[in-house]
Amino acid sequence: MDWSSYSRPSREELKKVLTPLQYEVTQEDGTETAYRNEYWDNKKEGIYVDIVSGEPLFSSTDKYDSRSGWPSFTKPLLENSVVEHKDRKLFMVRTEVRSRYGGSHLGHVFADGPAPTQLRYCINSAALRFVPKGRLEEEGYGRFRELFE
Length: 149
Fold this sequence. Notes:
Helices cover 11% and strands 27% of the residues. By secondary structure, the protein is of the alpha+beta class. The protein has a 6-stranded antiparallel beta sheet with strand order 3-4-8-7-6-5. A 3-stranded antiparallel beta sheet has the order 2-1-9, with no helix packed on it.
């Protein structure tokens, strides 16, 4: 699927299809509560996609327990699936992570992760939708099936 032609819905449309928390996180740069989110301890095999656009973002094969209370990954699923921006909020400089085509705020990336990347993509569950490996073909993500074989 070619996500470059994705057209982001209006704010009004997004408010109709997203939960208040999903909207706050993805559209208003919010952060959900640690350890009280859907995927922080999900151990099932599959991929995580942008809740807004459906862009494939992360794989369970790169997920690990960072003990932060949020889903954490060592790298994005595809090299160009996320974009990074400097975030100067909260009186510090961090690196914000957004989906490339949907523009959804996902979370932040930190340089304190495990090998081989030493990166920790700390992502809000509210910005994600999990697609189990058994539904990849059915939902149009069949090209990622090989990750789990």
